[in-house]
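Obj: model holo form, ligand = pyridoxal-5'-phosphate.
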Amino acid sequence: MIQLIDLRSDTLTKPTEEMRAVMARAEVGDDVFGEDPTVNRLQEKVAVLFGKEAALFVASGTMGNQVCLNAYTQPGDEVICDYNSHIFNYEGGAPAVLSGVQLHPIPGKRGIIDASQIEAVIRPADHHYAHSKLIAIENTHNRGGGAIFPLQKMQDIYKLAQKHRLKVHLDGARIWHAAIATGTPLSKYGKCVDSISVCLSKGLGAPVGSVVVGSADFIDRAHRYRKIYGGGMRQAGILAAAGIYAIDHHYQRLADDHRRAKQLADELSRLPGIEIDPAEVETNLVIFKVDVAKRSPGNWCRLMKEEDILMLPFGYDRVRMVTHLHITDHDIDVVTDRFKKM
Ligand SMILES: Cc1ncc(COP(=O)(O)O)c(C=O)c1O
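Output (holo structure tokens):
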């Protein structure tokens, strides 16, 4: 059987044998009654890691972000975010559908927005305007090529939010990567936002699930929205067990994914027809720009597929590759060779 090297996403990983064994043995109960001991253990663990009072296990990163938006806002409110953010681009217009809010996207640099930009768009108290309620940031930033949101900038945004009585939500689908790459304790990120949605099913390699953290009162409200969205799961401990295993066994190893991504970027930067700055590859996402007049992103991906390598066209002139649990040092050598050949 041909072994494909699948670099399209870190969401493609399959549970390892060890993870499956832990899932099979998980102690379970009805989580809608709050009686699944493994879900409770996961929630307590993640709340402690981020230094928050409480946590809620949810089905996906999208559900995590959206229960938070709903819990913070009323219809007609406004959420300030970066224009390349996941909540603005990839969640099906959910903020409008589920919360009746509008997003106010502002241009970030590789997804990073700063306090002065935000302050300039906060709405004054006037009946013409939507109410500015929430600032949503993303760390690491997906469309920003895995860019790390600097802690100082997050702290500045939090200070600004408090001055204007706004809340700050962090889409931390890949906050694990930012923490490993910078050596920042997860609790420090927890201190400068009101809530975080973290994913277990991306770099950490669990099959399903995300966790939202925040104050006890906030998590109680988010819990109600999880129910409204149909996200109350019963013996979900089988899934939560995978999440606990993923945090315990796959978190520290993210440094290997970062090293491999950097190596790939270094190699690609020496090749003609590809534009990439290896200094911008800070975590596990490698996005390169192509000359569309010569070969479109779709064509790059088709040609590499013939070489048993899968990558993702990423917009008009870019291609994305992601290192993850199933990508080895040898795979990086193979991919580099195929690129050189092409
Ligand atoms: C930054 C970010 N936030 C949220 C999500 C949504 O996660 P899910 O696919 O689990 O809904 C993703 C998915 O890739 C993501 O990259």
